[in-house]
Amino acid sequence: MRSKKRISKKVFKELAAKNVKKSAKDYFIYFFTLTFAVCLFYTFNSIKDQFEILGIPDTFNYLAASQGAIAAVSVVSCMIIGFLVSYANRFLMKRRKKEFGVYFTLGMDRRDVGRLLMKETMKIGSAALLSGLLLGIGTSQVLSMITARISGAGLGSYSFIFSFGAAVAAVIFFGLTFAFVHFFNVRELKKMELIDLLYADRKNEEVPESKKRDVLLGILSILLFVSAFLLIFCLSETKFLEALTAGAALAAAGTVLFFISAAGIAADIMKKRKRFYYRKLHIFDVNQLGSRIKTAGISIAVVSILMYLSVSVMGIGMGLGQSAIIKKDKTAPYDISVEYYYFGDSTDDEMNGMSVLEKLEQQGAALPQYLESSADLTMYEQENLTESSLFAICTENTKVRRNFEDPPVLLLGADDYNKVRELLKLEPITLGENEYAFTYNEPDAKDLLSEYAGKQKEPLKIGGKELTLKEGGIYETTLYNSNIFGDIGTLVVPQKTAETGTPYLKVNNGMFKGNANIAYEEATADLNKAKNFIYISQKDINVEIMSDQLTSSYVGIYLGIIFLVTAGAVLALQQLTQSAENEKRYALLSKMGAGEKLMRKSLMTQMKVYFGLPFSLAALNAAFTMAGAYRNIPYLTKGEAFQNIFFAAGLSIVIYAVYFMTTYSGSKRILKL
Amino acid sequence: MKTILKVDNIEKFYKNKGSLTKAVNHISFEVQEGEYLGIMGASGSGKTTLLNCISTVDHATAGHIYVNGKDVTDMKETALARFRREELGFIFQSFNLLDTLTGRDNIALALAILGEHPKKIDGKINKIAQELGIGEILEKYPYEMSGGQQQRVACARAIVTNPSLILADEPTGALDSRSAGMFLDSLGLLNEERHATILMVTHDAFTASHCKRILFMKDGRIFNELVRGADSRRAFFDKIMQVVSLLGGDKGHAF
In this predicted structure, which of A230-239, A472-481, A493-502 has the lowest mean pLDDT? Predict the structure, then answer.
């Protein structure tokens, strides 16, 4: 009896190492993509430690939410990378069928080959993990500088960051991803029959042809595109996210149908144009591409969809982020605002007699001691005075108006208003007995109010008095801290007239005395004592707005790049496998007398179409989607919008070009051109 | 003499959209230890299918195949893997060397898979390399070797584990006549000196003339048998050609 020993570990290790080393060039794109994914994972997940080092307070868990969003995106990206890895492995396994056949004939069983594959995956995986982490530690420094800038903490507060948690998470997540991939590999391995492995290259792929079906699907895909864009353009005003998601889904379905049907139709058209068809190697190119796109139609469609999502997500994410940051200085001009809303209970009566600060002191809150200057104001509502009735004569439509039912128009006494102006170091206004003015802070409301000023000739009846609009009486002021621009128009009327209305809201805007950080902390500690009151500090608003911007920009860029590298890697791997299969065909062309230059050109043409087609379609889809989306992202100028779009498009093109060039040189190497 | 291979009433049918192809149709024969058997036939006569069934690459539809007394037709996955590494040596038309490994490592892999003690591996390789005259190319990678050299390395890989049976599928198909001659001499040497039992499938009469016995296949059945006996190779070749012309005659093949 022969020895029953299993194959020694050493042999496995050596074989795996040799396989990886030998096919390092094949694995390069795969490795590169994995490294990139790990790097992104680490970089974006290290923001928690970035926040800590930058010393940004997180009283209301906005930053935690932002981390949560990034963690969720990380899970999605790991899943995408998992798919990519198993896809890449399937491709590589296809290339290695013969090799596996030899292993089997030499007497390895499936478990052995599975183990060999696992060793190889682990080798590449751990190398990618290591280099990705190193790269990530580098890029996370850059990111934390950007975070420092966005958060206004300044570069001074930056110091070297290593996030142990993010590194551990990366190891665990990618470890899990590889475990899953291995599981799929083993399943794939189980399906292999030795006879198919040994005679792998004799099998041809057959594709059923059906011209009628192609044309129908082509028409359907165009209809899907049109309906997607109509949906985005018409519905994104009211339901922004829903319309974008549904539109993207329709466009994605259209893309799939397009690639299933287009290849056949295009190839037929080109075959009919003989003057084109019989020139140079066009016969070869057209048929190669035709059969390629037909067999790999769905995966090319997926690539195109990924790129489309990538550019859109990056562009829109950064737009939303920028839109958020624009508000930063204007929505919270005071160190702190303390709000009291009238609910119709007994406290209301007490409040009528005293200021907000007096009431706070009475309740034992510490805040009043820490305020240097403050402005106490009361806003009133008047029966029958609502936005729709007041602005009925206007056609100008603002986003804010659309979003709310029909809020009352609030009244503010001129004396109270001047207190606010004083606090903001603005000149006080003078208002005649029979005059009124407007204050607003929603930038879009300016048009509405000037239209109103132009059209409204009738005096306004308030509290038994007839008031006319003061000449030039439209002021842009923020009456109290808020996370949004909520004020499209508050009426400033003589103090006595205002007080004829029902009190609606009492606010105290204050500036801190002495050390702002201590005051902020004391105010935060007040929360239990300040019953019935809402504290809105500038610091919290800034953190909230900043975390909004960080979340949408970072999530956009993170997802975008992950989509993009996945798309690039899938295309590159397909093209490389294809080149390996084409070796014989090119050798034959060479024997038929085609020169090297001609063949290189043919390869270039094929690759241009192969990479270009999904890219162009993605670009078209993304352009329409972003155009639709940017119409409904508030406060951005055209220049700012284009800046974001160009950044997203530019980044995509650069990354895509890297994949294109790497693949082209890889193909040239395989085909020995 | 021990019976190494017993093929008992083997059938292999392919069903294809209503048509039934009988690639191997009720074939039975035996191979004794130390025999050098050739199977000849035109393309499509079923010879490779028969070989694939014997080599456990393919599954027979019916019938039994015994190698060294063991029935290979009802073996399970792990038993098959073990059977392949212990009892069989393969030589393919396209060599099928692993191009990530040098010639030496390709041969060593077969021993390593078998679980041979690492210390003994180099000695065994050197011995077989000397016998086959491939000592100088052992450290080269497959793509640095000629086809004939690759096939002789493959031959060394097949024999180094001392298998009960060496199966060769058109081993000279991709070689020029000089390389083919050198390879066949090597194979003959293994048969003479090491008493290796060889089963070779070929459609080439010159290659077949190196065998000691030849089975001719046609349409999935055994059609004729030739034994070389005391004939010179030239005389045996002439006999083979006669049968071949008979085989090809009614099909109109210029063979």
Answer: A230-239
In DSSP terms, B71 is beta-bridged to B66
Closest C-alpha to B132, from B170, B208, B189: B189
Give the helix, strand, coil percentages of chain B, each rounded to 5: 40, 25, 35
Q: Which residues pair with A93 in a beta bridge?
A: none
Confidence of residue B179 (pLDDT cuts 50, 70, 90): confident
Q: Is A195 on the interface with B (CB under 8 A)?
A: yes
Which domains are delineated in chain B? Answer: 3-249 (3.40.50.300)
- Is there a contact between A312 and A629 (Cβ–Cβ < 8 Å)? yes
In A, which residues are within 8 Å of B57 by CB distance? Answer: 105, 194-195, 198
- Chain A's closest residue to B81, CA to CA, is A107
Tell me the pLDDT of chain A averaged across its residues.
80
Q: Cβ–Cβ of A106/B90 closer than 8 Å?
A: yes
Q: Per 3-state DSSP, what percentage of chain A is helix, strand, and coil (rounded to 5)?
A: 70, 10, 20
Chain A nearest-CA distance from B202, in A, is: 17
Contacts of A552 (CB under 8 A, 6+ apart): A317, A318, A320, A321, A324
Contact B100 A107 (CB under 8 A): no
Chain A / chain B CB contacts < 8 angstroms: 86
Is residue B173 within 8 angstroms of chain A, CB to CB?
A: no
Does residue B75 sit at the A interface (CB-CB below 8 Å)?
Answer: no
pLDDT for residue A190 is more than 90 = no
Output A105 or A53, whichever has higher pLDDT.
Answer: A105
Whether the pTM exceeds 0.80: the reply is no
Query: How far is A216 from A231, CA to CA, in rounded Å?
Result: 22
Contact assessment for residue A92 and residue A28, using Cβ atoms and an 8 Å cutoff: no
